[in-house]
Specification:
The protein is of the alpha+beta class and 230 residues long. It has three helices and 13 strands. The protein has helices spanning 5-28, 41-50, 209-218, and strands at 57-65, 68-76, 82-91, 110-112, 114-119, 130-132, 137-140, 149-151, 160-162, 173-176, 191-194, 205-207, 223-229.
Length: 230
């Protein structure tokens, strides 16, 4: 059956009106929009630091669950992009991440710098300041010199971590600049160090010793560590 010219015109008009209504709804109702995927936190961190002349190395600690994490180290290229140097497994605090206080067995969350490196073994070739441990060095828990490296010969009565006793954890280590104001009770002795026998730490970040050597050999004083949930 043939349709009249008026019927065909009416159908076109109806379709046109429907199209106009759909377009109006599409642009007026946010749920109809197709949003471009926003970059994840790790991509955003790379982008943020790409133009920062004060950062040329990035370490990502991507927390998974319990005390397990993935560890990535990147070097900034001359073009400002990030080249992955290596990836390995990592271990964080027994209670995970999100440190709030001393003794909570959690690793801090956030972006941090580093201060200096130290170790029981000799400097493997890092350009960072490297302190060779001796029996007199402690990381203090006392209020007066809390969260500081202290020589017991110069600070009588100091107590805290007797660093040289932690083998193999402190064969090689770098101090993460957490709690730089040394606020008493906020948390202390947060390091990046070699993995010990247990699959967790008391709040530090631990990686296998061979990778810890790689970190030190590639480290600079413009290195940042980023610790977040994966």
């Amino acid at each position: 059956m043939k349709h009249s010219t008026s019927e065909r015109a009416g159908n076109h008009t109806f379709r046109y009106i429907c199209l106009i209504i759909f377009i109006c709804i599409f642009f007026a109702w946010p749920d109809f929009h197709v949003q471009a995927a926003s970059p994840d936190k790790w991509t955003s961190l790379k982008q943020d630091f790409a133009g920062d002349d004060q950062v040329d190395r990035l370490i990502f600690v991507k927390y998974k669950n319990r005390s397990r994490a993935d560890f990535f180290m990147y070097r900034k290229t001359d073009r400002g992009s990030w080249k992955k140097l290596f990836r390995c497994s990592a271990w964080v605090g027994k209670k995970g991440i999100g440190k709030k206080r001393e003794g909570d067995r959690k690793t801090p969350t956030g972006v941090f710098g580093f201060t200096f490196a130290f170790g029981i073994r000799k400097n493997p070739g890092t350009v960072l300041e490297y302190i060779r441990l001796n029996p007199h060095l402690y990381w203090s828990l006392r209020k007066k010199d809390y969260n500081q490296l202290v020589d017991s010969r110069k600070a009588k009565g100091v107590y805290g971590e007797h660093l040289i006793r932690y083998r193999p954890q402190y064969n090689y280590a770098i101090n993460i600049d957490y709690n730089p104001d040394n606020l008493y009770g906020k948390g202390s002795a947060i390091f990046l160090h070699c993995r010990g026998k247990r699959p967790y730490t008391a709040g530090c970040v631990a990686i296998p010793q061979n990778y810890m050597r790689k970190v030190l050999k590639n480290a600079t004083d413009k290195m940042k560590i980023c610790i977040f949930k994966k």
